[in-house]
Amino acid sequence: MSKPSRIVLVTGCPRSGTTAVGANMALAAGARYLYEPFNYDAGMTVISRFFEIPGTDSFSMESFDRCIENIGALRLRLKPGLFKQDRGPRRWVKTVIGGRNRLTYLACRLDWSLETLVWKDPIAVFAAKAVAERHGIPVLVTTRAPVAVAASLKRMGWAYRLADLNRRLASLGLGDDAIIAKYGDRLERPAINGAILWRLVYSNVVAWSRRTPLIRLVDVQDVIDHPIETYRGLFALHGLPWSAAVENKLARRYGSDAASGAPPPADLPRRAHVTKRDLSKINVYGKKLLTEEEIAAVDDITGDLWPTVKAACLSQEDLEAAVASRL
């Protein structure tokens, strides 16, 4: 069994681009991708809810530390990850072999050349500060325009238990009681739910990044507009080896996706990861899926914070300086 010498956590609000960024960071030689061990549905058996927060009544620091130790040692007990919609061959495969969480875990364990574990996990976003400060693990936080996140959650029909999440955040002085009270009768609406979740995530992550240099933010629009330059800088910042092979793979991924003749965004299916779509549109299609009322609510919930989040993201100058420092 292999054991990584280091870990990089790629996290952010759900539907903010963590999957693509995590997978692409794992293109580096000696790197492997671990999918969402903090996921309540299919992650570690000790995870009792979405968005565990270290130091709260349901997730002690001791429990959190054991989770990080087990991730680093690749010693995980995972849930089956079966869903009601899994039927026929898909259900059989997941029962016998496992879903994405288990498959990426097994691939990591079997890779004797493994040096860097790229832990992709938006559900671990509220653990980012403890991951960095208690365990010295670098954290890369993806950001995406709030209207796009809200629209994506609406497309999926997802809504998280925000009242409970805010209660747990508030116990550590990290909640936002005012926004929960203002939209209390609309918390179950996916677009509103997504906008509030976005606010809870980034209001805290930006503050943590100012105090902890191991936490960095990247705007997925920069990744889309300048994929090679952005990833080369991200690789340099996280000590990952860059190569012509990595550059060629990224060029193919971002070049072919944008010219793939994908269906219009509003016609995307209700599943989390859609292939063959125009990556250049992912931050702008939201307004086609949201009502005018929802767009106004998203702007009310996030409008004051979005400029601050963008300003906290790594600039192209920051990324160029990181590359130069490695030369």
What is the string of SSEs from the N terminus onward?
Answer: EHEHHHEHEHHHHEHHHHHHH
Structural class: alpha/beta
Helix content: 40-55%
Enumerate the strands of the largest sheet in spatial order, edge to edge or round the barrel: 2-3-1-4-5
Please give the count of helices: 16
Mean pLDDT metric: 90
Look up the CATH topology: Rossmann fold
- Give the second-level CATH assignment, the architecture: 3-Layer(aba) Sandwich
Return the CATH class: Alpha Beta
The rounded Rg comes to: 19 Å
Total number of beta strands: 5
Please tell me what the overall shape is: globular
In whole angstroms, the N-to-C terminal distance is 34 Å
Q: What low-confidence regions span 5 or more consecutive residues with pLDDT below 50?
A: 257-266, 274-280
Strand content: 5-15%
* Number of spatially distinct domains: 1
Largest sheet: 5 strands, parallel
How would you characterize this protein structure?
- The protein has a single domain (about 5-325), classed as Rossmann fold (3-Layer(aba) Sandwich), CATH 3.40.50.
- It has helices at about 20-25, 60-75, 90-95, 100-110, 130-135, 145-155, 160-170, 175-180, 190-210, 220-225, 225-235, 245-260, 285-290, 290-300, 305-310, 315-325; strands spanning about 5-10, 30-35, 115-120, 140-145, 215-220.
- About 50% of the residues lie in helices and about 10% in strands.
- Residues about 255-265 and about 275-280 have low confidence and may be disordered.
- Strands 2-3-1-4-5 form a five-stranded parallel β-sheet, with helices on both faces.
- The chain has about 325 residues and is an alpha/beta fold.
- The protein is built from 16 helices and five strands.
- Helix 6 (about 145-155) packs across helix 9, helix 9 runs parallel beside helix 14 (about 290-300) and helix 11 packs across helix 16 (about 315-325).
